Amino acid sequence: MSTAATSASGSASGSAPSPAAASAAPSGRRGPRLSGLTWLVWRQHRAAFWTGIAVTVVGIGYFLQQRASMLALLDETGWPGPKTLELPAGFEIYNSRLADASSILGALLPVLVGVFLGAPLIANDLEHGTGKLVTSQTVSRGSWLARKLGIAVLMAALCTTALSAAYGWWLGPVGKLDKTLYWVAGSATGPIPVALTLLTLVGGVAIGTVLRRTLLSMVVTFGFAVAVQLVWSEFWMSLGNPVTIRTHNGVGDGAFPELPRAAYDLDQSHLTASGDLIGYGTCAKPTEQATQTCLDKHDVVGWSVDYLPTSELPGMLWTGAAIMLALTAGLTVFVLWWGRKRLY
Amino acid sequence: MSTVMGDRGSAEDSAIEAYGLGKRYRRGWALKDCSFRLPAGRICGLVGPNGAGKTTLMGIAVNLLQPTAGTVRVFGEAPGPGLGAAGRRTAFLAQDKPLFRRFTVAETLRLGRELNPRWDQRTAEDIVRSGDVPLTARVGTLSGGQRTRVAFALAFGRRPDLLLLDEPMSDLDPLVRHELMSVLMAEAAEHGTTVLMSSHMLADLEAVCDYLVVLASGSVRMAGEVDELLSAHTLLTGARTDEGMPADLAARHTVVESRTSGRQFTALVRPDGPVTGDLHADSPSLEEVLLAYLRTPGAPPLISPSAHAGPHPHPHAQHTQEAAA
């Protein structure tokens, strides 16, 4: 027996006495000592997990560095000015960086996690027979599936929560100043990246468990992840309760009602004397006279605007996250049920 | 008429008992009315042509598959999920010998240690070391023989009472095959492991097995001690008559198979009483017996008493028993 092989990592499970217990596993030397299925799952997917950790660390570093340089710019320009909260010239670059980071966090990351961690998680073991290898040890199929899913979900949740928090901290100082920043960048804050990632991840696992082929599962999971993104972007605005504001001082220049700062205007119409709404494009005529005639004909008296006040956003995000996490839980139950009944 | 055989099997513990076991896939029955018993402590060959249901039978015994009909008991217990007593005492080596290709050999053995409460690291490492397989090598870089050796180590490290091997040697060259068969026999002998090993090549098994279960088209054709199965048969050779074989032969003995070539006929029979007439009687080889049964699906199955699934066999098993008697 080589002495190099008799290093650390003895039987961590504390089970069968094995005097010759030797492991040349280099992974035993770093990180906490894992045992049982947890060790197996970590060892099998360590490349994916370390990639996730690295991306998280780099991402957080980038967010913090961007926050610092953004605040430096604002300080330099004497923002906030005594009278105005308008963001200074030169801030556009941070606007676009914040928007890019929000797409990465809210769209790209969930898709990647679903396709590269979720889809192969079980499918690869079913395709290559290693699932049989594991479940023919003294391990039940249910606990194997649960541990795999549990560790993957835990890792994804930790990484995305950390990234989301760091991003929120970067966005924080300027997040409420501007409609785009607040609603577009803000839609990838709080629980949303976590919920989108977990839903896509567990969806990928479910697809892989049923299809049993790694590559096919990855392709189908990509479709699923894109569908989740499309449905979410179509649907999430309707989670809020819009406020309607009506004016009765005409629709001329300067008559448009002033919305609260960073409010999101959903819909705007002309209000007639009878209380009906007509589309504001109805009277968009080529000449001013024709426009006025049209407005008079419809007896337009002012504007009616539906908007979402900023106070709606947190509730919308948490409601959306709750819906997605409920779906995730349903998919988890499905995977475990399928695994017990139909895995082999 | 009866095929009298020793009765010593019935007192032993059963490693496997199957009653009327059946498994239907979408394309039909892979296993049907399969009843037999494997006493503990035997090295048993599971023989049959490709598609005979060998893999299906093993899959059911280790709970990878659910039977459509019938029951199977492993050491008296239904094969439950991995944590049940039957699962704990059984190790299974699937045909493709799946291992994690990116794991090192040491990590593969650690897998065994982490996932099995009674793990024998010394046995496992000795099997690996005796083949000069480096512990630090990745499994994916090993040769077929070395990989099989690692898979054996993983199986024996569990200290199984029953080891099921599905075509363990099919992809190995004769030298490695011989070497690994010695490892297998040595370990099984040392630990008193019951082994059920499938193959479609009888030559693999003839030297090492003392028990045999022959499957064809999803049902048991023959089961029992190798010696008893052999001594129950006689190979008769004589001059052919118009019908090929003397008519009274079939009336007095159980004819498994008869063939004619030129002016001669050859018949494999289970004699019931002394063989008379101008015939040459010979002891058949195991291969001759096996081939005769596989070629003749209509021949009555032969189940030796120690291989009878009892005490309350499935109705179909009863039927088989009568046909054999």
Would you write up a description of this structure?
The complex is a heterodimer of chains A (344) and B (325). With 344 residues, chain A is an alpha+beta fold. Chain A has helices spanning 36-44, 46-76, 92-128, 130-135, 141-171, 179-185, 192-211, 214-235, 288-298, 312-342; strands spanning 243-246, 264-272, 277-279, 300-308. Chain A has a four-stranded antiparallel sheet. In chain A, helix 3 (92-128) packs parallel to helix 7 and helix 5 (141-171) packs antiparallel against helix 10 (312-342). Chain A is elongated, with a radius of gyration of 27 Å. The two termini of chain A are 39 Å apart. Chain B has helices spanning 54-61, 85-89, 105-115, 121-129, 144-156, 174-191, 202-206, 226-231, 247-252, 286-295, 315-324, and strands spanning 14-25, 28-39, 43-47, 69-74, 90-93, 162-166, 194-199, 211-216, 219-225, 234-239, 254-261, 264-270, 280-282, 302-303. Mean pLDDT of chain B is 82; it is low at 1-11 and 311-325. Chain B has eleven helices and 14 strands. Chain B starts with 13 loop residues before the first strand and ends with a helix. With 325 residues, chain B is α/β, with parallel strands linked by helices. Chain B has a domain at 13-228: P-loop containing nucleotide triphosphate hydrolases (Rossmann fold), CATH 3.40.50.
